[in-house]
Structure formats: C-alpha cells, structure tokens
Amino acid sequence: MHIGYGKGVCGTAWKERRTVVVPDVEQFPGHIACSSESRSEIVVPVFEGEEVVGVLDIDSRELATFDEVDARWLEQVAACVATR
Hints:
Blueprint: H1 8-16, E1 20-22, E2 40-48, E3 51-60, H2 68-81
Antiparallel strand pairs: 1-2, 2-3
C-alpha cells in the first residue's frame, strides 16, 4: 500500500523524519487503518544517508503497547535494515 507523504502515522514519520509512537490510533488525526484490530502503533523511519527510504510500521491490538524504549531499539533495527 502506498501512503502519501505526511499522511497517517507512516507518512507523518516520513515527513517529520522521526519515530512516531501512537498509544491510541483512534486519537491520531488522519490515521490510516491497515487493520481494524490495530489499537496502537509505532513507526520508525529507515534512512539511507539523510534520505528516508522506508518506514518500519508495527501495530498492536492493545492500547499503549509501545514506548520510548521500543523506539530506541527499533531505531537501531531500522539502521541495520537500511541500505548504504
């Protein structure tokens, strides 16, 4: 699925070039539901140099699943995934 620049959580992480943690997707303006079961979400941009080339998007069926510890570790995962 293609999500536009600045649209939904994925597009916001892309545009703002930062990890976005959403404790309750119902409270995120413009949220784009990939699954009706999704309740919380974390999106981490994947960089190639200074350019965002993708995002790591993880949803949860539970509210407030993700926190700053998850963000820190997933940012390290995203750094490993990026092509250089």
